[in-house]
Design a protein that fits this description.
By secondary structure, the chain is mostly helical. It is built from five helices and no strands.
């Protein structure tokens, strides 16, 4: 009984795996097995930049939807030393507008929404930085004014002490 159950589980696993591969191929998605390589992070970063340049130099790059999609991914890639999320969003919008929904990369809409969120968060961050700079300037002005008032109070205290001594005839 145990052998039959294990056999059914193995068959179920093989059928499920085959189904996943067929669906990936059906959606024109490539399954690539990459051998494990030891590559340093700077080399990978340079490779991302080099790939971007290579794709952008192709003639008619904006017409080739696969190149547009790949560029969108590369511009927002975590290993890109200078990610450009706005350009990535523009490229993703370009891809989505050119490719019919049934032929699109499965997560294109989801990735576009994530890129829009990143764009909005960056805008909010810029606003927060601007507000923080203004508050720092305000704080400096208030601190300078406070120091000035402290000096005036100290000089007034000294004057008060001197006048009180004169009144009492202590000097």
């Amino acid at each position: 009984m145990m052998k039959i159950t294990l056999l059914y589980l193995k068959i179920l696993f093989i059928v499920s795996f085959g189904f996943l591969i067929l669906n990936a191929c059906k959606a024109n998605q490539k399954i690539v097995m990459v051998p494990e390589q030891k590559v340093s992070m700077p080399e990978i970063r340079e490779s991302v930049q080099a790939t971007i340049v290579e794709i952008e130099e192709k003639p008619g790059v904006t017409e080739n939807t696969e190149d547009v999609l790949q560029l969108s991914f590369l511009y927002s890639h975590k290993l890109n030393p200078k990610p450009d999320y706005e350009k990535s969003l523009d490229l993703m919008n370009n891809y989505i507008s050119k490719v019919p929904k049934d032929k699109q990369f499965g997560f294109a809409e989801y990735i576009r929404s994530l890129l829009e969120q990143i764009k909005n968060e960056k805008k909010n961050l810029r606003n927060q930085k601007r507000l923080l700079r203004n508050e720092k300037k305000e704080k400096k002005l208030i601190t300078d004014k406070n120091n000035d008032l402290q000096k005036k109070i100290l000089s007034l205290k000294k004057l008060d002490i001197r006048l009180e001594k004169q009144r009492l005839g202590v000097e």
